[in-house]
Specification:
By secondary structure, the protein is α/β, with parallel strands linked by helices. It has one domain: Arginase, Chain A, CATH 3.40.800. Helices cover 33% and strands 12% of the residues. The chain contains twelve helices and eight strands. Strand 7, helix 10 and strand 8 form a beta-alpha-beta unit. The longest helix is centred in the C-terminal third of the chain and has 22 residues.
């Protein structure tokens, strides 16, 4: 709120950095030390293409807690100095910050003890980003936040027009969690039941382990959900499954892609800092590549990255760093799409083919010892 004796701040992104170059762990922790926007007017005035926000909510977990600290950990884990915001992706030779205007939009308001009010706030928070004309990338928080976040996206683009590709070890389609409808194991069911997303437009990748139970799997099949288990990945390879997921993402009336990444989709060897780790998962390289490919080849209207639990992270914050890089891959893919680089699995030949072979030995005349 503006003080009555102080002129109103003109709208636009706010640079919070004190120095020309800062590390992520210095100063005020915005994502990559990017400028901060607080209102839709700020987004519009800054011509912002993508806004990174957080929903630091951990109230729906019944397993290991700590995901409310995920957004801050993701923002502060990077080891490279910024600004200036230069991040050329070495595989595709595209720097997303040359082609996109990106900001941090802060966090949704969390009401401790009230899932309902927190989720209402989260829906409004996402709606503000969309109202400002920006694409939202949301940092969780537990996976329960996908319910309000994806609902806001569906309200903006139309119920039934959103397809979700969901990377996870778990289906998150439980009818309830100990009687609670809003749990981190229930959001996908809530979205389908509400009509925000059709079951046939839900594509899940990486499912494994010992849940859900047969009755929940039967419900998923009745909804025509596309569930790609790790058994399928192991039999056919990740590339085949990814191609299937990309082809299935948008069908029927759905023409807008939402990506949801639960970090436990990857094996805990790559992402130990999460609430519900499950061995035998994808590699971090596979998921990062998949996010970039979908953003470039299909295009996306929103993404969330959830379930980073810093208390259980190890190895120099590798889980938070994986989530951070998921965001960078999404930004890179979005920039690639803007540039028209939408060929399947596009790679710059300088990176994909390696260096040119060195010339062979040079023949020297007989007797020439030079």
């Amino acid at each position: 709120m503006n003080s009555p004796d102080r002129p109103a701040r003109p709208p636009g992104p706010i640079n919070l950095n004190r120095y020309e170059m800062e590390f992520a762990w210095q100063g005020i922790p915005t994502f990559m030390k990017l400028p901060l926007c607080l209102t839709p007017d700020d987004l519009r005035a800054g011509g912002v293409d993508v806004a990174v926000g957080g929903v630091p909510w951990d109230g729906t977990a019944v397993t290991r807690s700590g995901t409310h600290m995920g957004p801050r950990a993701i923002r502060s884990c990077d080891h490279l100095p910024t600004p200036p915001w230069a991040r050329p992706h070495l595989h595709v030779r595209v720097d997303p910050f040359e082609h996109l205007t990106v900001c941090d939009y802060g966090d949704a308001e969390v009401v401790i003890g009230s899932t309902e009010r927190t989720f209402e706030n989260s829906t409004r928070f996402i709606s503000e980003i969309l109202e400002g004309g920006a694409l939202p990338i949301i940092l969780g928080g537990d996976h329960g936040i996908t319910w309000p976040v994806a609902t806001a996206v569906a309200e903006a683009h139309g119920y039934g027009r959103i397809g979700i590709v969901h990377f996870d070890a778990h289906a998150d389609t439980a009818p309830d969690m100990m009687g609670l409808l809003a749990g981190h194991g229930t959001p996908m069911r809530r979205l389908i039941e509400s009509g925000a997303v059709k079951g046939a437009n839900f594509v899940q990748v990486g499912l494994r382990g010992y849940w859900p139970t047969p009755d929940v799997v039967e419900w998923m099949e009745e909804q025509q959900m596309r569930s790609h288990f790790m058994a399928e990945v192991q039999r056919y390879g990740f590339d085949v499954v990814l191609e299937r997921a990309i082809n299935e993402a948008l069908s029927g009336s759905a023409d807008k892609l939402y990506i949801s990444v639960d970090v436990d989709a990857v094996d805990p060897a790559f992402a130990p800092g999460t609430g519900s780790p499950e061995p035998g998962g994808l590699t971090s390289a596979e998921v990062l590549r998949a996010v970039r490919r979908m953003a470039a080849e299909v295009g996306m209207v929103a993404m969330d990255v959830v379930e980073v639990s810093p208390p259980y992270d190890s190895g120099n914050n590798i889980t938070a760093l994986f989530a951070h890089r998921c965001v960078l891959e999404a930004l890179t893919g979005t920039a690639m799409r803007r540039l028209g680089l939408t060929d399947p699995d596009y790679l710059d030949e300088r990176a994909a083919e390696g260096p040119a072979p060195l010339p062979g030995p040079v023949d020297t005349p007989a007797g020439d010892d030079s």
